Amino acid sequence: MALDFVLEHQLFSEIWILSDSRSVIQYLVNWRDVSDQRGMDIFNKLRTLCNTCVLRIQWIPSHANLKYNDIADNLVNEGTTMPQAHVEPLTCLELYSRRKAPVNISWRHPPAHSWYRC
Description:
By secondary structure, this protein is mostly helical.
């Protein structure tokens, strides 16, 4: 939606896309391997923006008490509770990443059993 807004209004000469998701940045870096329709739509919009302005994409650390990252996280949380007019089915990659996230978190926190520490 943000890309559509920028394309429609053409208000900017330089655009920064900041993400605290390394997988999103990797997805954008490996754009030649993208084959799903949603990804191709995003890349076509980014290509159009690159023709009219300077586009910068940067990863930022999450949960590092960065003011605007916290604001963006709060807006995302509010947005997920709002009703959506049109919801596309999730791609295989999206389903995989949703399942992988809690598994990764569980591996970062070892069990608290006393025998485990020995």
